[in-house]
Every structure is written in C-alpha cells, then in structure tokens.
Amino acid sequence: MTGQARAGRPNKLLRNLNAKIASIPMILTALVIFVGGTLWTVFYSFTNSKLLPRLSFVGFDQYERLWAAPRWVTAIENLAVYGILSLIFSLVIGFMLAALMDQKIRFENTFRTIFLYPFALSFIVTGLVWQWVLNPDFGIQAVVRSIGWTSFTFNPLYTPEIVIYGILIAALWQGTGLVMCLMLAGLRGIDEDIWKAARVDGIPMWRTYLFIVIPMMRPVFITTIVIIASGIVKVYDLVVAQTSGGPGISSEVPAKYVYDYMFQAQNLGQGFAASTMMLVTVAIIIVPWAYLEFGGGRKRG
C-alpha cells in the first residue's frame, strides 16, 4: 500500500501539467506585483516619504496625521453613507427587477439588455451624463420648472449636505443591472418543484421569496455583496467626473484622497498610509467572505 501511495504521488503532481505550467506567469505576477506592491506600500507608510520613497521612519505619525485631517474624516463618512446605501439599494432594486424578469414577461431579453447596458459604460461617462442630468440649469430641475412647477428644487451636486446622494444615484443607475443579472441567474437555478409545492401549500409569493428562495440563494448574495463592496471601496472615477470632490471637500472619498496626496501633493507617506487603510477595509470584506465560502463549507462537510 505504501508503494502504491508513493507511486500515486508523482501522477498527481503531473496531472494537468500543461495548465500548471501555463499558470506560473500569473502566479509570479500576483506574488511580485500585487503581494510585493502591497507589502511595499505598507512598509513605506511608516516613513516620511515625499516626492520619492525614502527610509526615514516616523512610526505611526502618518496615520495620526491621516485621522486628524478633516478631509480624510469627510472621505470616510462619505464612503460609509455611499457604501451602506449603495449596498442596500443595489440588492433590493436588483432582486426586485430579477424577480419581475423571472415571471417570464414578454420582451425579457430587451428589458434585460436595457437594464444591463449602463454597466457597459465607464464611470467617467456615467459621471458626465449624470452631471448633465442633475445640472440645475438644463437638467431635471430646469425641465420640471419649464412645465410650470417653478418652485421645484433638485440640485444635489451643488448642495454640500446631499451631494453624496447625487453620486449614489449615478452609481445605482450603472450597477443595478449587473446585480439584476446575478440575481436572475440565481432565481433561474431554483427548482421549479419548489414553486409548485409552495403554490399547492397556499404559501404567499412574498413568503416563498423571503423564507425559501432567498436562503437558497445565499451563495449568490454573498458573491454579489463582495462585488458591490469592492466597487464601493475603490470608487473614484464617478466622483471626479461628477464633482471633483466638491463643493469644497463635501464629496471627497478615500481613493481620491490617496491620488491627490501621492500625485498632486507629492506626499507619498501620507498617500501610502491612506492606501493601507483602504487595504484594511478590503481585508475586512474579503476575510469574512473567504471564511463563509471556504472555511464554513469545509466545516459543514
């Protein structure tokens, strides 16, 4: 038996050898560029680097300056508001659209294309389009006033208190279609017998969705949440295209803070510190997902 086990080991190592060899460049790229770049960023976040990286360690000074900066605090607050609302509305609207599409409606392919089309646009294009739509001089406000409602006011991009909601509207318009498609794929994977059994038992449709269908779609929801959350953390293009962080710093986000300090203020140490905090945020998202998808499944097995 021992000899057979030893003989089997080389066979396992040689299995799919071409695929393993082909994956070596990608593995090296991930290790050198992504992992190496991440460690390099974290390392130099503890230095006083300005225009160029330098080994002048200052401990946690960069992080203390970071969290003492009103601009960074505003960026975190905006990200929290934008992230929570984006996650909730994307899931709710996307699932509702998917549930409607799952009713085998006419022209389903047409509607699905229409809803998914905005996702094909870049964030820059989306931001510019919604900058025009929300512009008070020729956007929604101007159109409504032109039909007689002269007191109507809808000017989110130029109002500091609600500017983040104007950005949220554009983000939902672009990303909800993708969520709808993911949810629709999950709904189409539900066995038809479950729906038949629910109808026979007289269970209302909303209860069937809430207590039977949604729990069965747990992997789809987890994957969708990770995709949405990763986009939330790195949101940048949409803000730059719509407001450039204004009015003032009222629509500042962490990714823009990092870019401005690294490439405009030429303060690499501060930019690296902000990047590291964004990395921590991503880790907080990825680690629970990895545990639920792999660790939890292994325990159940």
Main sheet specs: none
Number of domains: 2
Distance between the termini: 27 Å
**Helicity level:** over 70%
Structure annotation, total helices = 14
Domain ABC transmembrane type-1: 76-291
Transmembrane segments: 21-46, 79-101, 113-133, 162-187, 208-233, 272-292
Family: Belongs to the binding-protein-dependent transport system permease family.
Subcellular location: Cell membrane
Structure description:
It is a multi-pass membrane protein. This is Sugar ABC transporter permease. Keywords: Cell membrane, Membrane, Transmembrane, Transmembrane helix, Transport. The longest helix is centred in the C-terminal third of the chain and has 33 residues. Helices cover 73% and strands 0% of the residues. The protein is mostly helical and 301 residues long. The protein starts with a helix and ends with a helix. It folds into 2 domains: 44 residues, no CATH class; 240 residues, Orthogonal Bundle (MetI-like fold). It is flat.
SSE arrangement:
Elements: H1 2-14, H2 17-44, H3 61-68, H4 70-101, H5 108-116, H6 123-133, H7 140-146, H8 163-188, H9 192-200, H10 205-216, H11 218-233, H12 237-242, H13 254-264, H14 268-300
Helix pairs in contact: 2-14, 3-14, 4-8, 4-11, 5-8, 6-8, 8-11, 11-14, 13-14
